[in-house]
Write a structure and sequence with these properties.
The complex is a heterodimer of chains A (352) and B (286). Chain A is an all-alpha fold. In chain A, 77% of the residues lie in helices and 1% in strands. Chain A contains 16 helices and two strands. Chain A has a two-stranded antiparallel sheet with strand order 1-2. By secondary structure, chain B is of the alpha/beta class. Chain B folds into two domains: 20-248, Rossmann fold, CATH 3.40.50; 249-286. Chain B has ten helices and ten strands. In chain B, helix 9 packs across helix 10. Chain B starts with a helix and ends with a helix. In chain B, 45% of the residues are buried. The chains are: A mainly alpha (352), B alpha/beta (286). Chains A and B meet through helix 1, helix 11 and helix 12 of A and helix 3 of B.
Chain lengths: 352, 286
């Protein structure tokens, strides 16, 4: 591989025998490692593997099937929400209303189901409403010109408020779950052991393909990297903004329903849902998506969510005092991001 | 009307001809209180290279942005090959055969060379419309080779390229499209002497083929005289001079531009009572 790239470099550019021959003498394994590390997702993969090795070697119960099942609900929902957020953050924007959307859709779903509508249409209608609210976010940002931070912060409070009003601040039992009796629906929409994991993997793959191999994806990168330039090239930047906010909202709404079905109940707890917002945004950034826009990775966000889940789970297994959990989590995020920044510098250097 | 309005020996009325591919009359454009274009009358013949000169802030870029559909004029009309021309968007103008190289190049640093080359005209697979990167890479390589620009790797992000290479890609992108009217906003700005000469050669070649007409903003008057058939000088939002390059010289063009600057200075110093009508206008522009 190293040889091939050397010959093409020599054929293509002006002859520069010095650096080229020194490159050929390098160990190919090191080159591969460097290549891997300079992938956008590379650093978080390394950090995650190190974390797994650490917990596996210092605790007995970490590498067990049961623990894996415990881990799933920690990371699968976050991965899906983070996947949507990648599309917004690659644009250089942020959607703060995803936690509130996650909170709101289960209550909408419950209201519809209690009105006697079949369950699957209830899910579909709830998701359509989530899309409409996402479109509203997008219009506020793209057409009205409000900063996404502010526009979606407004949406956050509006949705939290609506949820509290329609739920009368009371917990509800999710229709269609095993407690009530309909199982195949629940198996698919969150209650099956691997249901959320399969949804997460499927959605993340589709989103990554969308981002990497379609016009939607490169227009997202273009509008995030150079908004004026993208518009000059003829891209409808406003449309790109709106549809990415729609995507982000509908995925969060979907996760809300999955989680409500999985746990057979939904409680109107805005602080819990906002914690999920922060975890999703953390997963996106840890995964390698730039907050400034122009570059993003959905797979990276999935691994970022996995890293957060493993950290949470591993610290619990190690018996860390619950009071220290957030402290360690925060320090670990800072450490991981420091490594990330360093590796990004290496990546930029490799380009020269 | 345009004759009477602006006095001075250099001001020539736009003469229109039957083979005009693009004609522009009485174009005006303001940004809030700032008047960018007051009354632009311009025409472009088929196969012609028209150079646009003018001081900073004269309205050259604004005019180009209107011609390519990125901005809309406040007033005035345009005709393209004899038909009304009112582009709704850059896409729309491009579909009508008008394409532009913007001053800021409209390149996306994060995207690869070939993705930039095909931005907004991607090659897709069927039936599922995934990007056909293989075809785009191959075609981009061919287009760049044909133009003779050396870009060793076309799958690296354009952020890694030099200013000249970036400019070359932006020019190549527009030239290798199907446009028959090409607008270039300072295509040589970031280029070294050698790269600049390559682009000028390229424009010469296009001109010799005779199917493509070019409007080009340039700062260097020697470039204008060597690469263009005709030169229009924009001063204060109007075309102040329209001459074939064969009939003018660097000295004459410089004299007009410096003269305008002197008058603007004078007007700024002594107010509007200077007598000459353009003094008022230049003061507003300065």
């Amino acid at each position: 591989m190293a040889v091939a790239s050397d010959s093409s470099a020599q054929a293509g550019s002006s002859p520069s025998p010095g650096p080229a021959s020194s490159r050929a003498r390098r160990v190919p394994g090191l080159g591969l490692l460097k290549r891997f590390l300079t992938l956008r997702e590379g650093s978080i993969v390394v950090v995650t593997v190190i974390t797994v090795i650490y917990f596996a070697s210092t605790t007995q119960h970490f590498l067990t099937g049961n623990n894996f099942k415990t881990l799933l609900p920690y990371f699968a929902p976050i991965a899906i929400m983070a996947g949507g957020q990648v599309f917004v953050m690659t644009l250089g924007e942020i959607d703060l209303s995803i936690g509130a959307m996650y909170l709101f859709t289960p209550f909408l779903y419950v209201k519809l189901a209690n009105a006697g509508i079949p369950l699957v249409p209830c899910v579909i209608v709830s998701l359509l409403v989530a899309m409409a609210l996402g479109a509203f976010n997008g219009v506020m940002v793209a057409y009205v010109g409000i900063a996404s931070f502010v526009a979606t912060l407004g949406m956050l409070f509006v949705l939290d408020g609506i949820t509290l009003v329609i739920s009368h601040s009371e917990q509800v039992t999710t229709p269609g779950t095993t407690i009530v009796g309909v199982t195949s629906f629940a198996q698919v929409f969150g209650e099956g052991t691997y249901s959320e994991l399969l949804w997460a993997i499927g959605i993340v793959l589709v989103l990554q393909i969308l981002l990497s191999f379609t016009r939607w994806g490169i227009y997202t990168v273009a509008a995030g990297g150079n908004r004026l330039g993208a518009a000059e090239a003829g891209i409808n930047v406003k449309l790109v903004l709106v549809r990415n906010f729609v995507l982000c909202s509908v995925l969060s709404g979907f996760v809300g329903i999955l989680e409500a079905v999985r746990s057979s109940s939904a409680s109107p707890d805005p602080s819990g849902s906002n914690a999920i917002l922060f975890e999703a945004v953390s997963a996106v950034i840890i995964g390698g998506t730039l907050m400034t826009g122009g570059a993003g990775t959905v797979i990276g966000a999935l691994i970022g969510a996995l890293f957060l889940g493993i950290l949470n789970d591993g610290l619990v297994i190690k018996g860390v005092n619950a009071n220290y959990l957030d402290l360690y989590l925060g320090l670990a995020i800072l450490l991981a991001m420091t490594v990330n920044v360093y590796i990004q510098r290496v990546r930029r250097g490799a380009g020269k | 009307m345009t004759d009477a309005q602006f006095e001075g020996e250099h001001i020539v009325a736009p003469s229109s001809a039957a083979d005009d591919v693009l004609r522009v009359e009485h174009i005006t454009k303001s940004f809030g209180p700032t008047v960018a274009l007051r009354d632009i009358n311009l025409h472009l013949r088929k196969g012609e290279v028209l150079g646009l000169l003018g001081d900073n802030g004269a309205g050259k870029s604004t005019l180009i942005k209107i011609l390519c559909g990125f901005q809309k004029q406040d007033g005035g009309e345009m005709w393209l090959k004899g038909e009304d021309y009112a582009p709704k968007s850059v896409d729309n103008a491009r579909s009508l055969g008008v394409d532009c190289v913007f001053q800021d190049l409209a390149l996306i640093d994060e995207l690869s060379v070939f993705h930039n080359m095909y931005l907004r005209r991607e090659k897709l697979r069927s039936p599922i419309p995934f990007l056909n990167n293989i075809v785009m890479k191959r075609e981009a390589r061919k287009a760049l080779d044909k133009i003779g620009i050396n870009i060793p790797h076309i799958d690296v992000p354009v952020a890694r390229l030099s200013g000249g290479q970036r400019q070359a890609i932006a020019v190549a992108r527009t030239i290798s499209g199907d446009a028959d009217i090409i607008l270039l906003d300072e295509p040589l700005a970031a280029m070294g002497a050698k790269e600049g000469a390559q682009i000028l050669d390229l424009i010469q070649r296009i001109k010799e083929e005779g199917n493509v007409s070019v409007v080009m903003i340039l700062h260097n008057m020697v470039h204008v005289l060597t690469a263009c058939d005709r030169v229009n000088l924009i001063q204060d939002g109007v075309i102040g001079l329209d001459k074939p390059t064969a009939e003018t010289s660097v000295e004459e063009l410089t004299e007009i531009m410096v003269d305008e600057y002197r008058r603007a200075r004078l007007a700024a110093h002594i107010g509007n009572g200077a007598g000459a009508a353009p003094a008022e206008d230049t003061a507003a522009g300065a």
